[in-house]
Amino acid sequence: MTDPDWNNLKVALAVARGGSLTRAAQLLGLDQTTAGRRLTALETQLGTALFVRSKTGILPTDDGRAVIEYAARIEDQVTRLTEGLANAEARVGGVVRIMGNTWMLERMATHLPALLDAHPALEIRFSGRLPPAPLHGEPTVSFWFDAPHQPPEVSTAFARVPYSAFAATDRPPPPTDWVQFRDDDAAGPSFSREMQRRLGPEARVRLTATDARILISAIRAGLGHGVLPNCLGDADPALTRSGVSVGRIERVLRCHVTSDAARLLRVRTVIDWAREVLPDAIGAALIQPSGRNRV
């Protein structure tokens, strides 16, 4: 049997990442008929079904997973070859997606000019979508506090970010009233559960939200005290440190990246840039990685 056509393998890879043939065609810039024909040709050549339909979308079979892993390795080899052949000026090029909380991405964005001026062929795509997020074709670096990594990602402790309790400067709320980050779906320990434990049974949570900007607006309005990153609360003249003690709070920010993506020069460049800018951007204290755990 001849080796599978790379164009057909790309369709299988895109179906796995997009969750449907329609999304795969969009990712590859093909019409759905062409994408379907290529997938059928691949299954015919291999003599096996690669995907089955379910209530949640298209899922790979056991053979399909093996083919997807094979295609991903080829994609990685092609990408690394392309980067290796680039000239010195444009060596760091291509797309890197950075995922994280919107408030953090907003502050990181102010530091992007130096990175992109140094690497004109590099394109950064920010995404504030909460995990788990669907896989895309571009290599991704994610920065999350409580989210578990999604295999084949590797998760590494990256930095400590200080938080404090804040209240409205001119509308101090009752000491029992609070607004909180919502992470009810987090697996294992979560920030909201830890804060509920610290606040005790008398605390009354008036609002939960996944976006720091919503919490800031609620705190400004006097709806309640709220725990925020120091870099956000201290920068807002309408907020002041709350008189209610919640103890010292430092959240560990973790970097999630696949081992294949971490080998790419553009991804390593972005991670090094994040190490450089996060102390200033969000007041983070970097966690020095061991040689084994460094990403």
TrEMBL record:
Q: Which SUPFAM superfamilies match?
A: Periplasmic binding protein-like II, Winged helix' DNA-binding domain
Which branch of life, at top level? Answer: Bacteria
* UniProt entry keywords in alphabetical sequence: DNA-binding, Transcription, Transcription regulation
Q: Name one Pfam family in it.
A: HTH_1
According to the entry, every stretch annotated as the HTH lysR-type domain falls at 4-61
This protein's record includes keyword RNA-binding: no
Q: Do you know which InterPro entries this protein is assigned to?
A: LTTR, LysR_HTH_N, LysR_subst-bd, WH-like_DNA-bd_sf, WH_DNA-bd_sf
Gene3D superfamilies found in the cross-reference section: Winged helix-like DNA-binding domain superfamily/Winged helix DNA-binding domain
Q: Is Coiled coil one of the keywords?
A: no
An annotated Gene Ontology molecular function: DNA-binding transcription factor activity
- PANTHER family attached here? TRANSCRIPTIONAL REGULATOR (PTHR30579), TRANSCRIPTIONAL REGULATORY PROTEIN (PTHR30579:SF3)
Similarity-based family:
Belongs to the LysR transcriptional regulatory family.
Name the UniProt record assigns to this protein: LysR family transcriptional regulator
